[in-house]
Amino acid sequence: MAYRISDDCIGCGACAAGCPVEAISEGTPYVIDEDTCIDCGACAGVCPVGAPAEA
Q: 52: cis peptide before it, omega within 30°?
């Protein structure tokens, strides 16, 4: 199951930089492409506010 980014996102970009498959694009909040996401959790591990979570 892909990850999604909640409204807690502060727009820092740490999740996008930490994604190994470049599934995250800039937005408000940042957006994860569910078809590209490999469910690795790297984004959740680098997010300072815990915005990415399993959908």
A: no
Closest-CA residue to 6 (of 42, 44, 37): 44
Question: Across-strand partners of 3?
Answer: 54
| Domains of the chain in sequence order | 3-50 (3.30.70.20)
Over residues 1-55, the pLDDT tens digits come to 789 999 999 999 999 999 999 999 998 899 999 999 999 999 999 999 999 999 8
**What pTM does this model have?**
0.89
Before 29, cis peptide (omega within 30)? yes
Q: Are 22 and 30 in contact (CB under 8 A)?
A: no
